[in-house]
Structure formats: structure tokens, C-alpha cells
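so im writing up the methods section and need the DUF3078 domain-containing protein record in one place, dumping it here so i stop losing it
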Amino acid sequence: MVTRRQGLYILFFFFLLIGNLAYGQDESPVSESMMRPEPRVVEDTVPEIHLTDEDLGRIVDLRTQFERQNATYAKPVAPSSNLLRFLKKDELEISPEAMYWARLVRDASTIFDETMTFRDTMIVNPIFMPIVFKGHYLPEDLTFYDLSCLLEKNPYEGLYPVDTTLFEDIRQDQRLEEVAYRYVQDNYPAYFRYSSRDLRHEIIKPKAIRRNIFEDLPLKVENDANFEDVDAPARFIPERRYWTSSFESTLQVAEAYVSKNWSGGGNPNLNLLTRQYLRYDYKKDKIQVTNEMEININLNAIPNSVDSIHRYQVNNDVFRIHSNFGYQAFNKWYYSFNFEFLTQLVNNYKANDTTTLAAFLAPLKVNLGLGMRYDLEKTNFTNKHKNLKLSVNIAPLSFNYWYSRLKGPDMDLNRHGFEAKENPVEGENAYKNVYAKFGSQVDASLTFNINRYTSWTSMFKYFTTYKTVLMEFENTLNLQITRFFSTRIYFKARFDDSVVRTEDFKSYFQFNQLMSFGFNYKW
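--- predicted struct ---
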């Protein structure tokens, strides 16, 4: 019985036999003549060209052909910046942070902090450290002759032994290291991984450490500060000054000497002028206080031919204290309370007489006023040194009180405006030594700095009891020559109709004028 595998073998053998029979029938014997190649006839590949006159006329010359080709030529244009930016490839750049970390990994020395010290580091013997090829082949002590033969011999050599044990142990260690190094260099050169050329030769410069000082600074400054995360510093507001002061000092002297036999005649004299002015003001919110103190004295020497009793005469003597308290009502107007104190400091006498014209607290004048004050300050001039200050005080209710500590018959109270007694007693002063009157008063002061060297000061006072009038008008022109010297022109007019007319007071108008030169200082 034929199995399935045997049937497949029989079928495969049958197809193989049929194929061989078919291949053998197609084959035919090949003769020698059939194997020999026949000779190939070579024909001319370039045909013969016959050109006529018509064909020759169609041939284009080289010049015409070049012109046709150049007709489409265009001059190259330089590419624009936009095109170059488009064509340019982005170059890869490493950020500073990446370079820092790359160097930190590659450089083994960066694993130590800059502030680290090696005072407690153990020193290792060079024999047990990695070997580095130094490049020295010949020994350092190689010599071809004895240098000692050229030296002069010491006649005392050999008399005492030379101590060679001081550094002998160190020399022994050095020789051992050199022998070990030579042995490895000659027998195991592959152990050398580095040479002296691979070592760094840069000079390490010390980095200066600067201390950041933060004391008394409104803002803390750091080297690596991120200004985006730092808030703006607090605004510095200086402390406001509510009290302001000013001072002016003047001392001017004029002296003239004339001998007794001077052909033109004349008398020697000495004039002294001094003025001390202090001002101390306070201003806060709506409250404003003005305080002034002034001492103004003008003396001149009197020759014996004019006054045989007194040696000097007082032309002007004022000790003045003034204070004004104001509370702002609106704009430049203030409700005000005014106080003024006046007296003299030096005794003044009548020429060739013992009558006292004025003395300290003789008289004493006090003024109290209640009203309103107007202040104006203008500084918007083209010249920065030019400014104007005006103050006008109007007191509808004003009180004047005068007192004289000298009330004897030798005191002239009439010239100061004191009232006469109704029934004077013989041997006493005919005028009262106390004066008290209510009325109205207007005070005005002006300071005009024309430029850096010229200033004008003016004061005006008007007081009336509605029966009598007292008016004073004072002007001072100061011409500053240098910082400490100036020329002053002073003029004062006075009107007082409360004075009883006498031989000395024929008019109610009084004048005082002075021109001086000397020391002047202000701040």
C-alpha cells in the first residue's frame, strides 16, 4: 500500500523526467561555421552635407547669437537685509548659564569653593601621586669636569669636620623620589598619562573681595541684584523747617581831624553808626509769627567850641522789639495781633545844657494792635537775585502806651508827645510821664532786592487817635560793594502834631538823613 509521502515522491520524479526530455528535443548541434562571427561593414556616420545659397543665408553669425543671449541678461542686485536674514541660518549659541555649568563639570578645580582654605589638608608624598612626565632625560647634576679643581683650596680644610646631618634626611627623600621616577620612566613609560605641557600655566590672579557697606543708606546694594524684584526706594522727604532766621550787622565809622591852626578853620569830629538787626520767623500751616529785634545808634563827637559840657551827641537811637502773630484767613490775608516795644539805650542831652532829651526807658513806647495783615512775596523775576517782600498790617483797634521813668524838670517830655498837665506844680515837670490812647494804626514794610548788590528797605507807620496824627516814613538804600563793605543812604521823615510848638518845634515835620560807608554783613 502506497503512503501519501511516497505518492508525492513519485509525482515529483515524474515531472522531472518530462522536463529533461523536452529540453533534449529543443537542442540542435552547433556547427563550427555557425560559431564564427561574420565581418561587420563599417559605414561613415557623418553624412555629407550639401548647402545651397538659401541655406547659407539662414546661418546666424556669432555676434548676432551673442546679442540674443545677452538680451536676457540682468545685472545682479544685492540682496536686501530681509532676504539675508531669511537666508542666514540661525547659529547655535550657548547661554552663559550653560557655559558656567559646562566649565564647572569639566574643570575639577571648581569643586572647591573660593573661600575654602587648605590649612588642614594632608600633604601626600609625590611618589604616591599620579606620575607626570617632566621631559628631563639628563640628570640635573651631570658634569663632565670637576668644578672643585678651579677653586682655591682652603689651607684649614680637614682641620674640623663639616656638619652634613642638618638636612641629610630631606636629601635622602629627594634622592629616593628621583630614583623611583627614573625607574618608571625607563621601564614603564606607558604609566605616564600626562606631561608637563598638559598642565595649566596661567597666572592665577587674586580676586579682591570688597565689602559692601550698607550703613546709613536708604537702599541696600548687592552685586547680583535682580532689579525686577526690588521695590523702589522710599521717597526721601527732608524735615521741614518751621523756624527761619536772618541777621544783618552794620558798623560804619567816619573820622575827620583838623588842626587848630588850619587856615580854612573847622572842628575835628568822629561819627559812629551801628545797626544790628535780627529776625526769627515761624510758619506752619495757617499760623505765621514774625519776630524782630533792632538796635540802631548814630553818635558823633562834639568839639568844645560847639558844646563845652558834653563830648558826644546822639543823632539816632532806637531799640525796637516787634512781634506779629497771624492766622491765615484766606489767600494772603491773616488775622493778626501786633506788638511793638520802643526805647533808647544812650542818654542824649541838649547842647550846653543839662536838660535830658532822651534816655533808657525815657520814654518807653508800647503798641498793641488787633486787625488783619496782608503778605506778598514775589520772586518770579528774570534775575534770580531779584525779589520783593511786602507786608501791610491794618489795626482798626490799636492802643499806644508811653511811659518815662524820668519825670523831673530836667526831662523834656514835650518833644515826645506827652500831654501837658492841667495845673502844673512849680518845680515839677509840666508834662505827664504817662500816655495812653486808643486809635487806629497802619504799618507797612517793604524789602526790595533789586539785584545781588543793591537793596531797598522801607517802613511806614501811621497812628491816629482821631484828634492827633503820628506818621513815620523810613527808607534805607544799601549799595553792597563787597561781601563785607557797603554804602548806606538813610532817610527818615516824621510828622507829629501832638507836640506843642516851641522855638525848637516850629514845624510838625521832622527829618533825619545820613550817608555812610563801612562794614556790612548779613546772612
